[in-house]
């Protein structure tokens, strides 16, 4: 994809989503200012749009070849490998994190300012997605051993609790920190282009059930959970296929429609009725 086209489409999507948010009943102060500042600062971030390829429009998904260096990938793994815990999922009703056989990997979160390398990666993700750093959760490092997987799921929420923390997840950036000998593909079972992708025996059976992306160290996958009108995209269903040989390391960045660092109720402008006749 031409780099100018990618930048134009990214801006169109972002501005379209902002329009829907800013015309809603509740305003989120600082959101537009954060985006405008990001657009001004984007040129200073280490970001090369010529490495970006659009792989799907339904859902919207893009690959960035060589998003990280080998050294950055290894650094993230070294930060995480001694602090891994069993991965959890969000309960659809309570919103609480619970263990589930749906997701069998292990992982941990890195502080946004943990060191200069992590901070630089955070800035690069914001530059690529055109979404403010404050809208993102901390980067989660994930490790998959033989047979481990994450069954198809959505990144947006079904419970009210998590939606209060920054709203829906609008986009996900998944960076592959290692090669995988076999398996471990990211699969989109309902992608419209799934039947247009030829697959031979080098693909796992899981990957053959949709459009799939092979893990390639340094590459990053960006996909959007919301449509330009800010509604959820049902074609965004995705999963991590079981690792059949070797191991898989990845870094996941979930990005919300508003600040994840400022609770929703604090972001709403307070309105006080001073008239004595008001209850």
From TrEMBL:
Per its UniProt entry, which superkingdom is the organism in? Eukaryota
For molecular function, the Gene Ontology terms on record are:
iron ion binding; L-ascorbic acid binding; procollagen-proline 4-dioxygenase activity
| Keyword Transcription regulation among UniProt keywords | no
Question: According to the UniProt entry, where is the signal peptide?
Answer: 1-24
Q: Which cofactor does it need?
A: L-ascorbate
Q: Which reaction does it catalyse?
A: L-prolyl-[collagen] + 2-oxoglutarate + O2 = trans-4-hydroxy-L-prolyl-[collagen] + succinate + CO2
Q: How does it sit in the membrane?
A: Single-pass type II membrane protein
Subcellular location per the Swiss-Prot or TrEMBL entry: Endoplasmic reticulum membrane
Q: What is this protein called?
A: procollagen-proline 4-dioxygenase
Organism of origin is Actinidia chinensis var. chinensis
């Amino acid at each position: 994809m031409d780099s100018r086209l990618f930048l134009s489409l990214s801006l169109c999507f972002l501005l379209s989503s902002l329009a829907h948010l800013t015309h809603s009943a509740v305003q989120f102060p600082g959101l537009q200012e954060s985006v405008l500042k990001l657009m001004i600062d984007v040129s200073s971030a280490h970001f090369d749009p010529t490495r970006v390829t659009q792989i799907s429009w339904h859902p919207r998904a893009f690959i960035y070849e060589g998003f990280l260096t080998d050294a950055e990938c290894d650094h993230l793994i070294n930060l995480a490998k001694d602090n891994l815990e069993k991965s959890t999922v969000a309960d659809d009703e309570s919103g609480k994190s619970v263990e589930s056989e749906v997701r069998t990997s292990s992982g941990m979160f890195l502080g946004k300012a943990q060191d200069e390398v992590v901070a630089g990666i955070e800035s690069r993700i914001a530059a690529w997605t055109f979404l403010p750093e404050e809208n993102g959760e901390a980067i989660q490092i994930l490790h998959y051993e033989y047979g481990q997987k994450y069954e198809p799921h959505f990144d947006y929420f079904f419970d009210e609790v998590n939606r209060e923390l920054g709203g829906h997840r609008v986009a996900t950036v998944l960076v592959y920190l290692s090669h995988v000998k076999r398996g471990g593909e990211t699969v989109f079972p309902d992608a419209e282009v799934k039947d247009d992708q030829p697959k031979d025996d080098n693909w796992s059976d899981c990957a053959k059930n949709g459009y799939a992306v092979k893990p390639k160290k340094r590459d990053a996958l960006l996909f959007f959970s919301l449509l330009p009108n800010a509604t959820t995209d049902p074609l965004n269903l995705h999963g991590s296929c079981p690792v059949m040989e070797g191991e898989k390391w990845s870094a996941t960045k979930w990005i919300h429609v508003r600040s994840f660092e400022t609770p929703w109720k604090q972001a709403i402008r307070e309105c006080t009725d001073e008239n004595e006749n008001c209850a």
